[in-house]
Amino acid sequence: MALSKGPLTDEQKDRYRSSAEETGLLVEDMRRRFVPLARAALDELVDEADQGTQAAA
Prior knowledge:
By secondary structure, the protein is mainly α. It is built from 1 helix and no strands. The radius of gyration is 23 Å and the shape is rod-shaped.
């Protein structure tokens, strides 16, 4: 809310940029960890589905 009340001071801009950069780094770190875990989970589901299909045949 404070950021929407007129022009920003240089200090506010620096704090905003710093916070945005930190958040960006955290998001990228979480993405790097999430993608391999999600891929492994999907591979496991596909393998189970394939086994179920083969057993039914």
